[in-house]
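dumping this here so i dont lose it
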């Protein structure tokens, strides 16, 4: 395929150690994680809790392995806490990512989120009030201005168990925010898990998508999670997520539409699994080979 030269491939450390479920991968070291990322052919990483917080120290580990920082997750609480609280934490996060050379900041609103709670993922999903929507959209635009001070962008992560998960909620967020200030993260796994159409989302918002997560879904586990009314983290432990090429999602039309719209930036494999059941290095290799086969990069 053509026009892929400005696409860079990264992988997230959550397959090695899960920050939300520390018991998953607690035995895996930071050094093992980044070494296996590099060995499996990726050139970028997102940030996990085991990573050094000092940019100089972190670079000393990443540079010999020819790894860059693609981005890192930031939890916003714009719907439930004073904006100033989120702003202070965001500036610290922004400055760290800027020092590491990242161009985008992954932001997800965690006000009322149930993704870490032991409740039914769908029936207990938060629905924002009108006032909360206003706090979210105005707050995100303020964060967008702060990111622009460092020539960076915020990319909003739609996510299971949060107030921005569905197509309708993504549509509202995009409609009510300034395209110059608020961009979108495109996550295949969360869209399919929620029952959305990733192709349609990409078509609609391709000009605002500046960061991509590739994760796949295991159909049999998804069916079990839905039937059992499981929580998000229970679904993760059961293995609902996997790497591209190992689940139900056909990534070929997805990479075709990404290429056709001349996407530039990171595509990050992110598949939170139990590493004792899904060896992270083996699955990283599987993902890398699959992407090479269908995309030529």
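and the seq i came up w/
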């Amino acid at each position: 395929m053509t026009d892929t030269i400005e696409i860079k491939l990264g992988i997230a450390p959550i397959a090695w150690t899960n920050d939300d479920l520390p018991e998953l991968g607690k035995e895996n070291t930071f050094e093992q994680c980044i070494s296996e990322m590099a060995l499996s052919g990726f050139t970028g990483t997102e940030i996990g809790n085991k990573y050094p917080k000092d940019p100089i120290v972190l670079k000393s580990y990443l540079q010999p392995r020819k790894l860059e920082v693609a981005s890192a997750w930031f939890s916003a609480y714009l719907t439930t806490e004073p904006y100033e609280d989120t702003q202070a934490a965001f500036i610290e996060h922004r400055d760290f990512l800027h020092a590491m050379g990242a161009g985008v900041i992954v932001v997800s609103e965690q006000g009322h989120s149930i993704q870490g709670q032991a409740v039914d993922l769908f029936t207990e999903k938060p629905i924002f009030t009108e006032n909360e929507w206003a706090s979210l959209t105005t707050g995100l635009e303020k964060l967008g201005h702060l990111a622009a001070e460092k020539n960076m962008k915020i990319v909003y992560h739609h996510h299971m168990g949060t107030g921005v998960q569905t197509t309708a909620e993504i549509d509202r967020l995009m409609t009510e925010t300034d395209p110059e200030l608020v961009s979108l993260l495109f996550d295949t796994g969360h869209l399919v898990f929620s029952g959305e159409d990733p192709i349609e989302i990409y078509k609609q918002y391709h000009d605002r998508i500046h960061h991509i997560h590739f994760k796949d879904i295991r159909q049999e586990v998804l069916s079990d999670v839905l039937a059992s009314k499981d929580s998000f983290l229970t679904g993760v432990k059961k293995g609902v997520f996997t790497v591209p090429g190992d689940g139900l999602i056909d990534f070929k039309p997805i990479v075709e539409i990404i290429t056709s719209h001349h996407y530039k930036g990171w595509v990050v494999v992110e598949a939170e699994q139990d590493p004792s059941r899904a060896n992270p290095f083996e699955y990283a290799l599987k993902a890398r080979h699959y992407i090479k086969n269908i995309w030529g990069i």
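The domain at 7-295 is CATH 3.20.20.150 (TIM Barrel).
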